[in-house]
Design brief:
Layout (H helix, E strand, L loop, with lengths): L5 H5 L2 E4 L5 E4 L2 E5 L4 E8 L11 E5 L3 E4 L3 E4 L7 E2 L1
Parallel strand pairs: 1-7
Antiparallel strand pairs: 1-2, 3-4, 4-5, 5-8, 6-7
């Protein structure tokens, strides 16, 4: 089982395997400090207008399909997109 540092994960581009679209880079990780595991990754979303507040995209860790050398592949479906 390969090990990854948080810094190396944050340098990986996140890509949705369903659409092939680039979602961006990891902004933050949500961690369960009781069970010592990652719950989800947080990716910043673009602002829709100058005055609007940007919302972050939270992707559950179980939606990650593969961690490669420089990309992180996720399986997103519309029902899974939890906006924060």
């Amino acid at each position: 089982m390969p090990l990854y540092s948080i810094n190396s994960l944050k340098l990986m581009e996140v890509i949705d395997i369903n659409t092939g679209s680039k979602l961006g880079y990891i902004k933050d990780l949500i961690i369960d400090c009781v069970d010592y595991k990652i719950i989800s990754i947080v990716i910043p979303r673009e602002k829709s207008s100058w005055l609007s507040k940007s919302k972050d995209l939270e992707i559950p860790w179980n939606r990650i399909v593969k961690i490669g050398v420089d990309v992180l592949l996720v399986n997103l479906e519309e029902a899974v997109l939890g906006e924060k």
